[in-house]
Amino acid sequence: MFMKYTPSRLKGWPRVAAAISLLALLPAVAFAQTSIDAVTQAGEDRADAGAAEQRQIDDVADQTLEIVNDYKSVSKVVDGLKVYNSLLQRQVDNQIAEMDALSTSIENVSLIERQIVPLMTRMIDSLEEFVRLDTPFLVDERTERISKLRDMMERSDVTAAEKFRQVLEAYQIENEYGRTIEAYKGSVDIDGNQREVDFLRIGRVSLTYQTVGGQHTGGWDPAARAWVELPPASFQNQVAAGLKVARKQVAPDLIVVPVPAPTAGGQ
Q1: How far is residue 203's CA from residue 178's CA, in Å, rounded to a whole number?
Q2: Domain boundary residue among 156, 176, 196?
Q3: For the residues of 24-61, what is the DSSP string, one character each?
Q4: Residues spanned by the domain of 151
Q5: Residue 197 lies inside a defined structural domain of this protein
Q6: How many CB atoms lie within 10 A of CB 243?
Q7: CB of 122 within 8 A of CB of 192?
Q8: Residues 105, 158: Cα–Cα separation, whole Å
Q9: Kind plus residue range of the DSSP H or E element containing 208
Q10: Do 220 and 239 contact (CB within 8 A), yes or no?
Q11: Distance between alpha carbon 155 and the CA centroid of its chain, in Å?
Q12: Same structural domain, 198 and 171
């Protein structure tokens, strides 16, 4: 059965239709809002992921820079160690060369010592003969020095180097006598009696003596190998003046002393 259309019956339909349309649009609006929210959230998630990745990149860059700096520092240390090791190697090489040289020297010590000991013995013999033939000044002192050298040669607690040094020192002392002036006390046989005298030595060219008070003045005659007495009036004052100069009691001055004349044989 159909209802009859009347205007009064259709009067409320537009409102109903609008309501129906709104009800129909609600799911679409809700879906659209959900999609927008999802897109926004996805964008935020991508932004957060990008930021996290950027932080990771920054961390990796910082780590890489730190590694590079460490590498540069280590490289400098390595370069320094290479230079230092090269220097040490040269030092070690030099030390090895010195060790080889020392080993060779040690091997030759026995041979050198066997050769130098006879040489020193001959040197002492020559020195003793020289003192015996020389002007007889400081005889006891010089003879005792040679005797000590001979005793030293027999000692095992003295090295060959020290023995050689002392032998050379004795030669040097004898050499110094030739260019010095000296006054010392001793004794001389005068008229069969031992008399205390003052000796005056001028190098090796003149050796004179004088008793206290100047009563006796004499000198050594190399040709006769004996003491001879000089006339008091001739050299008494000169020898006395020479003794004062040698003792540094007066300032150095020109003195006249007896000097033996050379012989034809040079003695």
Answers
A1: 4
A2: 176
A3: HHHHHHHHHHHHHHHHHHHHHHHHHHHHHHHHHHHHHH
A4: 121-176
A5: yes
A6: 22
A7: no
A8: 19
A9: strand 206-211
A10: no
A11: 33
A12: no
Please count the CA atoms within 13 angstroms of the CA of 202 that sit on its side-chain side. Answer: 20
Domain match, 158 and 212 both: no
pTM, rounded to two decimals:
0.57
Confirm whether 190 is domain-assigned.
yes
- Is the same domain home to 171 and 136? yes
- Does residue 52 form part of some domain? no
Rounded Cα–Cα distance for residues 90 and 82 (Å): 12
Rounded to an integer, what distance in angstroms lies between the CA atom of residue 91 and that of residue 68? 34
DSSP β-bridge partners for residue 201: 182, 207
Contacts 24+ apart (CB under 8 A), 129-133: 130/174, 131/174
Domain total in the chain: 2
Q: At 13, which amino acid appears?
A: W
Phi, psi of 224 (to 5 degrees): -85, -10
Q: pLDDT (tens digit, 0 to 9) for every residue of the chain, 267 residues total?
A: 444 444 545 455 455 555 556 555 556 556 666 777 777 877 777 887 878 888 888 888 888 888 988 888 888 888 888 888 888 899 899 989 988 887 887 777 777 777 888 999 999 999 999 999 999 999 999 999 999 999 999 998 998 889 999 999 999 999 999 999 999 999 998 778 888 999 999 999 899 999 988 888 999 988 888 898 887 777 888 899 999 999 999 988 888 777 776 655 444
| Pairing verdict, β 217-221 and 226-230 | antiparallel
